[in-house]
Amino acid sequence: MVTTRKERVDALARMSTDDREGEAGVSLAVSAWRRLRRNPVFLVGAAIIGTFVVVALLSPWLAPHDPSEWMLADQVSKARNEIPPPQPGHPLGGDQVGRDLLSRLLVGSQQTLMVGVFATVIGLGGGLVLGTLAGAIGGWVDSAVMRLVDVMLSIPSLLAAVSIGALFARPSQFTVILAVAIVQIPIFARLLRGSMLAQRNSDHVLAARALGVRPRAIVFRHMLPNSLGPVIVQATLVLAVAIIDAAALSFLGLGNPDDSVPEWGQMLGNAQTVIDSHPNLAFWPAGCIIAVALGFTLVGESLRDALDPKNRR
Amino acid sequence: MALLEVTDLTVVFQRRGEAPFTAVDGVSFAVEEGQTVGLVGESGCGKSVTSLAIMGLLPRRGVRVSGSVRFEGAELLTESPRQMRDRRGRDLGMVFQDPLSSLNPVVSIGIQVTEVLERHRGMSRSKAMRVAAELLDQVGIPDPRRRLDEYPHQLSGGMRQRALIAMALACQPRLLIADEPTTALDVTIQAQILALLSQLVRDTGTALIMITHDLGVVAGLCDEVNVLYAGRVVERAARHELFARPRHPYTHGLLSSIPRLDAPRGERLVPIRGAVTDNIPWTQGCAFAPRCPNVLEKCLDVTPEMEEDDGRLLRCHNPVRQEVPA
Ligand SMILES: Nc1ncnc2c1ncn2[C@@H]1O[C@H](COP(=O)(O)OP(=O)(O)O)[C@@H](O)[C@H]1O
Ligand SMILES: [Mg+2]
Question: Where do transmembrane segments lie in this chain (chain A) (predicted)?
Answer without folding.
Answer: 41-63, 113-141, 148-168, 174-192, 231-254, 282-303
